[in-house]
Amino acid sequence: MRNLLNKFIPFSFALWTMILLNCVVVVFHTFVLLKIIPYDIVWAGKLKSNEEMLVFESISILINILLMIVLLIKGDLLKTKLLIRFATVVLWMFVVIFALNTIGNLFSKTTTETFVATPLTFISAILCLRLVLNNEPMYKV
After folding, report:
1. Burial class of residue 11 (count of CB atoms within 10 Å of its CB; 0-12, 13-18, 19+)
2. Rounded Cα distance, 51 and 57, in Å
3. Separation between Cα atoms, residue 13 and residue 135, nearest integer Å
4. Which pLDDT does position 116 carry in this prediction?
5. Which of 37, 79, 89 is nearest to 60 (CA)?
6. How many CB atoms lie within 10 A of CB 116?
7. Displacement of CA 118 from its chain's centroid (Å)
8. Measured between alpha carbons, how far is residue 130 from residues 4, 33, 83, 100, 135 in Å?
9. Handedness of CA 62, 38, 20, 125 (dihedral sign)
10. Where are the alpha helices (DSSP H) in 34-136?
11. What does pTM read for this prediction?
């Protein structure tokens, strides 16, 4: 699996694609938080109130910011060698989270989540797996 991913998905492509996807996701969730996008199309359509939306969207934004920091560490864009192992462990957790989220999105009540979020979480799982299985030197800007 590692050789297949390494052969077809360059580390830098996986890194920058995940960074870009996370930027888009943070903006999207910020728009939901600001009520520019209705909250009934996220969280499988299960949010019942503005208060729930505020909590869930705030947590989502914080988790995506954490992932962004981990990606920057893994890509050696944040110069902190002490946290490389931490970044790898967190990326493994995100591989699992994205894989489970992909399955959950398939059963969402909203078509937006099913048809937009499902491929995004599947791609994110694959790209995070590629980053976590990295055997080459850290990406240099």
Report:
1. buried
2. 10
3. 15
4. 87
5. 37
6. 14
7. 12
8. 9, 31, 19, 17, 10
9. positive
10. 50-74, 84-106, 111-112, 118-132
11. 0.86
pLDDT at 135: 55
Tokens of 139: 């990406």
Task: Give me the long-range contacts of 94-102 (CB less than 8 A, separation at least 24).
Answer: 94/67, 94/70, 94/124, 94/125, 94/128, 95/125, 95/128, 95/129, 95/132, 98/122, 98/124, 98/125, 98/128, 99/125
- Nearest by Cα to 21 from 131, 110, 107: 131
Write down the residue that tokens 């999105």 correspond to.
105
Dihedral sign, Cα of residue 10, residue 12, residue 18, residue 23? negative
Percent of the chain scoring above 70 in pLDDT: 94
For residue range 32-54, what is the model confidence (pLDDT) as tens digits? 999 999 998 888 788 899 999 99
pLDDT on residue 136: 55
39: number of Cβ within 10 Å: 20
pLDDT at 137 over 90: no
Contact 109, 45 (CB under 8 A): yes
